[in-house]
Amino acid sequence: MGVLTEGTPLSWNEIVPICQVYRSYALSQLVKIFEKCKDYQGDSFLWGDELEFTLVHFDHSKKRVQLLLKAHEILPRLVETNKVNHDDTPSIAWHPETCDFMIEGVPCEPYGFLPSYLNTVEANMTLRRKQAQEILSEQSDCEYIINMSAFPRYGQGQFIYSSAHDDLQEVTEQSIHYPDRLISPIHPRMKDYQGDSFLWGDELEFTLVHFDHSNKRVQLLLKAHEILPRLVETNEENHNDTPSIAWHPETCDFMIEGVPCEPYGFLPCYLNTVEANMTLRRKQAQEILSEQSDCEYIINMSAFPRYGQGQFIYSSAHDDLQEVTEQSIHYPDRLISPIHPRMKQNIEYGNSAVTVHTSLDSITSNFEDSRCHPSKPEEIQI
């Protein structure tokens, strides 16, 4: 994953149409890099470190410490300082962080593989702090650069040192704890920030089980392929007062996945809707299961405790272990979902025929339809 140093990030709506293009490029490049480097041996072990510094202002008269929003001012000077080549002083690479009260410093050159390089780490860290502190001390003796995992007064009262005041009616983040002026004006991903709302969601994976009360045991229920079409159909109907749920198959036929069709919003009040949405998902699936039996349930659990232990599947069928694909007594073929796209050899998506290849030379999928698909990228130079 590369560091964005110049250019303007695309918006989500601009990214969606070209996602598959760049997935194809990435896979092709991964294969070419692997083929180029797979026989490398005996390379030296090189390593480095990264320090993230916090800028603070000490108000001695009021006995308080506040965040100092000066990263955008001192970073250009730090970069300029390290452009000058000093033979006896290692160069430091300085980068902006998302917040304007933080900067990141890393060695320009990695440490070597000899044990003696361990003795140079502390001196390099000291040099980074010294370079930044010298610039801060030119203007004030109350401004410092420190290392800490979290600023303890973050979001509490006047925790920012600045003469400006936030207009909370116009800030992008709509937050009294994270006003817009905390955002770095020089960070590549933030400088062109247009104020897109922060949207989020969740994902629940449900397990279908059958309670055998007479034998006092619980077994996995292979009915995902039966109830999923009905769940999808239920949510295709538009209910203005009920959120829609997107249901998806899992690899195993005893599991289904449910996610909200629409993401939650950025306001804190949306946190109050999560539990109700999760309850709705469980209710929709349980209602279908309860139509046929009062012994079938949908539950949430990380792992089924009796998985693979004798008669752990509720079914009247028996496996012919001589013909199963998995050749496993713990994972018989009937556990595999018959409707999961990745578990079929040939998948039809509308007019697109997708053939999945397992060899390394043809790891990407071939699409044969009228959609635009780029030619294979040329071999990259390493």
Structural class: alpha+beta
CATH architecture of the domain at 51-182: 2-Layer Sandwich
**What is the share of helical residues?**
10-25%
Described by the principal axes of the CA atoms, the overall outline is elongated
Which segments are poorly predicted (pLDDT under 50) over 5 or more consecutive residues? 165-173, 318-326, 345-382
Instruction: Give the termini separation.
Output: 15 Å
Remind me, CATH topology of the domain at 51-182?
Creatine Kinase, Chain A, domain 2
Number of strands: 15
The H/E string reads HHEEHEEHEEEEHEEHEEEEE
Overall pLDDT score: 79
CATH class of the domain at 51-182: Alpha Beta
Number of helices: 6
Q: Mind summarizing the main beta sheet?
A: 6 strands, mixed
Please report which band the strand proportion falls in: under 5%, 5-15%, 15-25%, 25-35%, 35-45% or over 45%. 15-25%
Specify Rg, calculated over alpha carbons: 29 Å
